[in-house]
Amino acid sequence: MTTVLTVSRTATAASSHRGLTMTLFGAFVLVTLVITVWAGRRTKGAADFYAGGRGFSGLQNGLAISGDYMSAASFLGIAGAIALFGYDGFLYSIGFLVAWLVALLLIAEPLRNSGRYTMADVLAFRMRQRPVRTAAGISTIVVSIFYLLAQMVGAGSLVALLLGVSGEGAKRWTVVAVGALMVLYVVVGGMKGTTWVQIVKAVLLIAGAALMTVLVLARYHFNISSLLGAAADASGKASAFLEPGLKYGTTGTTKLDFISLSLALVLGTAGLPHILVRFYTVPTARAARKSVLWAIGIIGVFYLMTLALGFGAAALVGPKVIKASNAAGNTAAPLLAQELGGGAGSGGGAVLLAVISAVAFATILAVVAGLTLASSASFAHDLYANVIRRGRAGEQEEVRAAKLAAVAIGAIAILLSIFADQLNTAALVALAFAVAASANLPTLLYSLFWKRFNTAGAVSSVYAGLVSSVVLVVFSPVVSGAKTSLLPHRDFHWFPLENPGLISIPIGFLAGWIGTLLAKDTADPAKYAELEVRSLTGLGAH
Amino acid sequence: MDTPPNEEPAPPDGRRIAQSQEFRELRGSFRGFAFPVTAGFILWYLLYVLLSSYAPGFMATRVVGHVNVALVLGLLQFASTFAIAACYARFADRRLDPSAAAIRESHRTGAAGRRDTARLPQEAAE
Q1: In chain A, what are the domains?
Q2: Where are the alpha helices (DSSP H) in A380-424?
Q3: Which of B52, B103, B107 to substitute to test the interface with A, most A CBs within 10 Å?
Q4: What parts of the sequence cross the membrane (chain A) (predicted)?
Q5: Whole-prediction pTM
Q6: Which ipTM did the prediction report?
Q7: Which of B21, B45, B96 to mutate to test the interface with A (most CBs of A within 10 A)?
Q8: Fewest beta carbons less than 10 Å away: which of A199, A358, A536, B62?
Q9: How many cross-chain Cβ pairs, A to B, lie less than 8 Å apart?
Q10: pLDDT band at B9 (very low <50, low <70, confident <90, very high)
């Protein structure tokens, strides 16, 4: 992440669009706050706070899922990766889409039918409550905090870039403001408010991306091949720009690293807690299925548009200008907007740049609110109500605990983001997916589909997946031993890959299997029968 | 023994339903679709990732204009994802939803008089 901007094109263009960006973003914040207060007045009990009263339709929840999923990392990161590395950026985006089939076929409907508010509801369904809820609660909070950090650190740098302000002070205040707003959305609006914020954001993001896509394609008379040709020419890498290898194919290690990342992406999505809780906001399993179908359509079209935006940025803005503005390419989409509007200094360019920048801020804000809600819900419902208070907490007490947890998690995220602002956001997102794929997905699949799975198996797979993925990252080049490491001057790494998935996902699955076989207590066949009936038919579902 | 959460709805008679012919058929058709299709799309995705990493020459083959095999295979991943989602939607509509509804219905009438069934989810509520 670039920290200080001096004489780049963004900075010079900044003065003309900065005011407009702030106005548009202010309008978004105002509208979403009004929605939040409105939703807060309609939030009475725990089912409203955690699950939005289970009253959303498949389309609404599909939009909200897309809003939760299409982070700034997707919009700015993938467009930038395509603009700088061509085909490999596109290759990266595909795992994010294919992953939704796991959620559609195996997770969404059974989860909706057998759980209540959190992922742990399903994992603990036929197990001993306290050990399983503790494990699932910890892994939920860890995944959410990694993801939250990625978004907030990214937000700090992004504001500096898009508004052309430099210096640590501006970045810090951005992180504090984003953190305060996300806590406000969650505490006041609960799941109802947060869902509407996601819906508004998803519509804005899709509209912004669609507008730019049409403008890009129009420049090339809607001929994809000539867009590709222009991008390859401008990249200076000729046809290699359109082929795999520029980012992930340079050495044997980067190839393995990419395979590891792909596995984490495709298996991690269906284990992300903030995505899983969205399935509780609809009334039936059928509506949960419809919401995933909508999400697949929306997210798929969005990534196809990112492909056009990335190649468009390469062709029209050019890698030199993009790299001068931000080495990782994060400003490729905003710079493209400026170019499409008429170029730097033009009125149209300033307007389009301001619109796209405001959409990017809205994107960050909505995603962090979703993450805060999922982690505070798990804290209150799993750790507080069921582990600490052993199921004796009343509904009001539980919701109060969730609100306090949202404030605490917000504060922790703000502090960590300020002190860890050199963290590599892409590595953090990848780590969140790796933990979800190694700790959460194996446990969910075994719980739902393996009769013999028991408490020991559930606890082993969560902890083994969680610990192995975090430990492998600590001893990887992400933390030490490379120029881009968190601690570039130290070197204690022995694991060569940046992404742990290739090793930690099999460990998670194996640990669940071995733990189950070694345990003394056996699974209760009556509870499994009940879970199966409930997950497939919805009998007894909340 | 842990106390279950408050307001737990009355559990259905899981064991009896689970052993019924209708339920075993429902489970069979769900698993018969979901498991092989999942294995299939994961293998297809991994094949694509491996080709991208280890068969750059093949992936670079031009198909038409500047469009090469790599791009076509990438777009095919999108196409197959959309197609599988659409197939599952049809399959669930035709095969899974009616039999799940029938099991719910027969349980509801079977349990009438014994248990308050007001909390059973309503498909119509969607």
Answers
A1: 2-537 (1.20.1730.10)
A2: 395-419
A3: B52
A4: 20-40, 61-84, 90-111, 132-153, 173-191, 203-222, 258-280, 292-317, 350-380, 401-420, 426-450, 462-482, 502-519
A5: 0.91
A6: 0.92
A7: B45
A8: B62
A9: 202
A10: low
